[in-house]
Design a protein that fits this description.
The protein has 60 residues and is an alpha+beta fold. The chain is 23% helix and 32% strand.
Length: 60
Amino acid sequence: MKFTLEVDLDQIDPERRETELGRILRYWAGNLQHYALERGDRAELADSEYRTVGEWRITA
């Protein structure tokens, strides 16, 4: 299986990219225990204003 976490940095305000990316990574890592991480699982990633800026997914 393969885990992919993808964030489109062009969708994030350039003044806040580092802060937003750090927040996304901390939030996802903190909630890791809530996911089964099985093939086909995926979820959208949002910035602090709840705009979709990426996703994570489990593939074969």
